[in-house]
Amino acid sequence: MQIFLDTANIEEISKGIAGGCVSGVTTNPTIISRENKSLQQCIGDISALSPDLTVLVEAVSSETKEMVKEARQLSKLAKDIIVKIPMTPHGLAAVRILSGENIRTTVTLVFSCNQAIAASCAGADYVAPFVGRLDDINADGLSLIKSIKKIFVTQNARTKIISASIRTPQSVAELFAAGSDIVTMPGNILQAMYKHPLTDAGLQKFAEDWRKVPKEL
Ligand code: E4P
Q1: Whole-model pTM?
Q2: Of the chain's two ends, which shows fewer C-beta atoms within 10 Å, N or C?
Q3: Does residue 146 form part of some domain?
């Protein structure tokens, strides 16, 4: 079970890493465009925060040959890069080639079981179903994760599931319960995960009571 942050913002990622439970970062062209920096600069800054961080970077080409070339370059941007490839026939052909070169891939923009099956059969290491974008159009993102998990377990597929496009903190627990291997979320959702009023009240009471204990030093 792993938590990733779905952002390229350095402050957000630093805060997430400091919280102890983040092991990766996912980006896409929209996320990179918010930072006013080149892709190379963004990835360099992110990976400089922690050498152990897994970083997902998306290929933007649309033809197989160009995607493969781009993925080879992207995979060298940092120590632990996974290349995101869009869910298209050209994309899956690129995934097939890259899997033979030991370049790890995530097939992104997955919205159905059949897309997840096709991605897995092409050799994808991960699929990234966009849970929130399904919920946005009154479909059921959580049910999709449950169904993909059932298929992958039944078929003993090695492909893992990264649940993406997260809208609420409650959905995080539901997605892990449904079998997500990774959930990638914005910083505000991660910060909300730590919170519980009873934790705050309990801490306050412990601090008050501790002040009553006679101290030897
Ligand atoms: C996943 O990796 C995507 O970058 C992301 O989760 C999409 O989220 P959005 O639907 O909030 O844009």
Answers
A1: 0.96
A2: C
A3: yes
